[in-house]
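Wed. Picked up where I left off yesterday with Adaptor protein, phosphotyrosine interacting with PH domain and leucine zipper 2. The coffee machine is broken again, so keeping this brief.
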Amino acid sequence: DIVLPATEFLDQNRGSRRTNPFGETEDESFPEAEVKTDSTTEVIYEAMRQVLAARAIHNIFRMTESHLMVTSQSLRLIDPQTQVSRANFELTSVTQFAAHQENKRLVGFVIRVPESTGEESLSTYIFESNSEGEKICYAINLGKEIIEVQKDPEALAQLMLSIPLTNDGKYVLLNDQPDDDDGNPNEH
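Structure written out below (tokens, as returned):
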């Protein structure tokens, strides 16, 4: 599960507006920060610092919940109630990713997005997770490794043998023990 700061405080100048008591907004976009470079993970740590500072200054405690699915093709943010994708990022467009060094639940990634002008822009996204950020980074790295070895069936088979999977082989195990009573693995 991924939670995001509710962005209702950004809408203060829109006049009277009905607010959702669960902290979710009608806006389907996610908080992002444009960055100038993706050469190091420092841009992610700086964005994390800014998000934490903004949350403290504006007393933002309500969050919008999403589920994060990492596949060998993409990162998908899914609405937990409707199971509809809120955002989809091609894994090949993820240029950097990192977990916060002290707050283990924070994770961020930089996305390279082609613009209509032919240029590219870089945006960083920061999330707070119910899982450790390092586990999410592991899943992203694994997805990127699978992309790299897909052209070599032998290397792909070797990689797949080294991955801890659920009994049905569909999901990567990020936790040693199941975290739900319904038997579903942690898919984050």
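Quick read: The chain has three helices and eight strands.
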